[in-house]
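Standup notes
- DV: blocked on the single-chain target, sequence here:
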Amino acid sequence: MKMSFDFYNPTKILFGSGKLNELGSQTMPGKKAMLLMSKGKSAKVSGAYDRTLEQLHRAGVDVAEFAKVMENPVKEMVMEGAAFAREEGCDFIVALGGGAVLDSAVAISAMATNPGDLWDYVNGGTGKGRPLVHPGLPVVTITLTAGTGSEINCWGVISNLETKEKIGFGYPELVPVLAVVDPELMKTVPPKYTAYQGFDALFHNTEVMMSNGVNILSEAIALSAIEHIAQYLPRAVKDGNDLEAREHVAYGSTMAGITMQLTSTTAQHSMEHAMSAYHHDLPHGAGLIMISKAFAEFFIEKHACDGQFVKMARAMGMKDAQKPQDFIEALEKLQRDCGVADLKMSDYGIGKGEFMTLAVNARETMGGLFLANPCPMSDQECAGIFEKSYR
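- DV (later): unblocked, structure below
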């Protein structure tokens, strides 16, 4: 256990039911906002759209809407959004939506003020890894889902369809200045996506626990988040209007945004990004669920971090857990309770011949997360996890 850590997060967080009502009284970072949303209707169905406009009006902010974000955001959309922000004279971004919108906000923020192409500044894969020339536009986030934790960090995952790459992009200067996490806005998320997003949040925290960089603070926060998600996610999936359940899952998700700044996630995320880079219709959380058991079992078989698995099993409700395999039992139960235990790679077009291709892609595009694994994992072993997970 590391007793040292570095932590800096300048984001002001308004967390709790009804907190969107306080947005209008906050100091805004500009006078004209680019209101960034998805192509879907989630913001309007939840009531968040009208309430956000009302609050921005109260704050004296003009708005230009850009509602073109898709589930797995692509580079072309980012560049279009950046051009829109410049043309409309927007001096900050309000990201209203789920993980895809929050991720896109980071990239659009950077490209609205910097020359060239997004991939000029991406690290990994075919990205050129150049530093930003100018600070990005300030970002205010209003999350409508509990999953990514992106409302309080500087990272966004963007796909390049041409190169089959899905890579995390981010710079510390792109951290949002203000985040609103209001569980009331999450009540209309459908059960399936509540589960996918909740497991994404869970795995952010479990991967921090497995990481070789876990420290005294990231572990404490991650275990708290794991406990809340494991206890309340089945309730949120069963009844989206269960506000208490929504609050606890949202807490676990936002805390993941903090733990991921204290300690990196692991190659489980690299591997899923490879899956959805090649199969763009695969929801991120669903892909993580598919490989989660085999991924954890790899390290259990290596005895790489036995004590961490026991701690997580206890946090997930197995108070008398004594062995690492108890975590697998708790994980399988949670997946059954949330109705996601039977997800299949084959349902999304993934074929048996792709395992090594996905393994190589995962390392080439997001190899840094492999360095956070508690023990080394070769390309062959990575492909073996895909194979073990396949059905």
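- Follow-up: The CA atoms of residues 156 and 364 lie 18 Å apart.
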